[in-house]
Amino acid sequence: MLEAHRVSSFRPRWEVREDGSPLLVLAELGWRSGLEYTLDGTIYEVSTTWTGTRYTLTSGDTEVAHAERIGRKHWSVTTPESEFHFRRRSIWKPDQEWVAGPDSSATLGGIRRTGTWRGDAEAQLPGMPGPVAVFVLAVVLLMWEQAAGAAAAGAASS
C-alpha cells in the first residue's frame, strides 16, 4: 500500500510511504506543470498537457507510461507491456477504482482520499509495477489539485 502525505500547503509536494516506510518525495517541477521523483536510483518525471487530460511518465528520454482521459469517469494508463483501467467511484467522491477492464465491474484496487483538507491519499494497487503505481498515485493527486484549483477559481469569480 502507498500512502501520500502532503508536505507543503503552498506547493504540490507529497511524502510517499510504502507499507509505513518512507519511499520517496513527489516534488513539483518548478515552473512547469508536473512532478518528479526518484525510485530505486532512477529519476522519473510526470508531466502534463496544458489541458490536464493527458499525463506522461518519463525516465530520461524514455516514455515509461502515459495516462489519458484524466478527469473523466473512465481513464487509463498505458505502458509498453500493459494497460490499466480506472474509474471514478462516485460523482460525489473523488476516489478512483482500478478495474479489470473498461467495462468491467471487477475492482482490483484503488486510490482514496484520506485527508480532506491536506490532500493525503492511500493507494491499494497490488501487483502493479512500482514506478507505474507511483505514477498512478501522482496522476490522481494532480487531478485532485486541478479540480480544487478550478473550484476555487469558480468560487472567486462568483
How do the strands and helices of this protein lay out in sequence?
Blueprint: E1 2-6, E2 13-18, E3 21-28, E4 34-39, E5 42-48, E6 54-59, E7 62-68, E8 74-78, E9 83-88, E10 96-99, E11 107-113, E12 121-124, H1 130-157
Antiparallel strand pairs: 1-2, 1-12, 2-3, 3-4, 4-5, 5-6, 6-7, 7-8, 8-9, 9-10, 10-11, 11-12
What does this protein look like?
The protein is α+β, with helices and mostly antiparallel strands and 158 residues long. It contains one helix and twelve strands. It has one helix at 130-157; strands spanning 2-6, 13-18, 21-28, 34-39, 42-48, 54-59, 62-68, 74-78, 83-88, 96-99, 107-113, 121-124. It has a twelve-stranded antiparallel β-barrel with strand order 1-2-3-4-5-6-7-8-9-10-11-12. The model has no long low-confidence stretch (mean pLDDT 86).
Keywords for this entry:
single chain; 158 residues; alpha+beta; twelve-stranded antiparallel beta barrel
